[in-house]
Amino acid sequence: MTGNKTEARKLKVLGLMEEPSYVPMREKELACIMLVEPEDRPEFKRILQELLSEGKIQINKRGRYSKPEQQLLTGVFTSHQKGFGFVQIDGREEDLYIPEDCVNGAYHLDTVEVRLLPGQHGQRQEAEVCRIIARGMSSVVGTYQKSRSFGFVIPDNSKLPSDIFVSQERSKGAVSGSKVVVEITDYGGSRRKSPEGKVVEILGHINDPGVDIMSIVRSFDLPEGFPEKVMNQAQRCGTEVTEADRAGRLDLRELTMVTIDGEDAKDLDDAVSLERDGENYCLGVHIADVSNYVQENSALDREALKRGTSVYLVDRVIPMLPHALSNGICSLNEGEDRLALSCLMTVNHKGEVVDYRIAESVIRVDRRMTYTSVAKILEKEDPEECAAYEELVPIFRDMAYLSSVIRERRRRRGAIDFEFPESKIILDQSGHPLEIKPYERNTATKLIEDFMLLANETVAQHFYWLQTPFVYRTHDNPDLEKVHRLSLFINNFGYTMKTGQEEIHPKELQKLLDKVEGTPEEALISRLTLRSMKQAKYTTECTGHFGLASQYYCHFTSPIRRYPDLQIHRIIKEQLRGRLDEDRTAHYQQILPQVAKQSSQLERRADEAERETDKLKKTEYMEQHVGEIYEGVISGVTAWGLYVELPNTVEGLVHVSMLPGDYYYYDEAACEMRGTQTGKAYKLGEKLKVKVKFADRFTRTIDFVLPHEEEGIDDGEGSTETGCQ
Quick check: keyword RNA-binding in the entry (predicted)? Predict the structure, then answer.
């Protein structure tokens, strides 16, 4: 049958289904109505299958065909280990819920077409996968298990609902316990339970040092080494700033400036300077001019865009740019000339920027400072530190004062500042966790944070009013339904907040957090407030940053480790040089939407990988503390149990079946677990003694139980955290 005849017959089928009198029919009934000859039935069946795959018709569970009831939507499928899944649609607030019998062969991260179904699962709209447009995963990382004549791979990713079958001849010699990368050769779909694959790489045995982290690197498809062409370009960038490099730049080498970073930081991409000008302060934020060395569309640039961001795993950093650049000519090393983009701001006693200048500059850092050292000077007036940096102490004190003024101004306008505990995991040489140390913000870390935020806002506002193409960092207003649920919940504690019909001002959330500070319910309400908010992202439209209560915001201060910063540095320099003409404007208008979208996606990937490695090492750490008792905080309440976070940020689950003395049910509205007979309730934010029952690094799970009352609290270390899941 020719293509024209096929299309003609498709149109006839569609025409029949569009008739007002048409009722859904089976294939055989359709063939009879359309007078299809017996010898043409296979071709007719193929036509129906093509129309189904194109989304032009649908088939119900009884095998009856009809036109789709509504327009099909396209999105990305996320599977769940229990067989159901979700589809994320661009521009849609809530993911769609896909019941297990409506997955129709979709695999994790596939791009799919879906049809909305009547009914909801909880708060979510239900849908059915109609067509798989593109596969999202071609390979999976997991643990190989050998059977007599075949093997199978248990995926590391808990979202994948089934193991992957591997025939013996495709196992590449893997043995039970091997960590492998398996390429999927058959996704199985609805025809069989498990997909099939072949082993393409053996990472090592599950107990070999470093294999656990490498498995996560492979699972998230994180890049490792740089291609040779990229490394060659990085090596050719030079190691010193030349006279030609300095030409036409603002010379700020006589200005006293410092870098303030962590002790182990090597890529120093921001420096700060401060001078008094009467009642005002001249604050300089100087950022490494990475774009001078990474030219647009070069091999370096394409690789940086592909990576999107540096990824900070527990035992390694996967950089966006090669170390020859990030630790070399682009690092603002003490005593060395460096090229920079400087945001020079005049700030008054109210913390307002009353004047500013953005310029290409050449700088020379006077001292490389650490957060610890500066905090000792400012918080403890440590005699030894003060003597070592005597000439800088007055500047640091001025910086601390200006930081407090800027922070207070930001607080007054309604910026929300969450202070949840973070941790640093200390590993031995073999990669085993020795200690989990809490990481606390101090005066020095807050100082740098305040100055960087101010520079980011100043640059964003400048380019917004120039109306040039730009990449902004935006944070949308919370979903009103979630805010209203939060408002109802806090009424139980005697708190109220003003919520408008269409939006809420961030100041209302900030006021709420101020009210609960120091109260027993602070952790509970802070977590629920955070969960009511959306994720920040990169966009080409300046829609404001809700969390910072800022109309204008961008990421300008870290071009070594974030691609959006590098991208806007190019735009800034072209505008400063008068080269942002009609052609270049059109060029940026064309490329920036994809840059913003891709950067947001890669940021999410990096965040997830970082969380997974932290969870892995925290679980491994707790394997050494099974049987010990800790006091933690209930950080999450779900239908299946209580998540408890220990002081060191380790989190584990007390399963609902392990709660003694009653049958407990989950009260979603109150975010608590309540006993049916006793009425005893376990609430989010409540302190709870727990005993470590089980920890398994391979499944990354930690189980707690409630100890007997006569057991006291152990002095050992431990910790856990999360929220109302």
Answer: yes
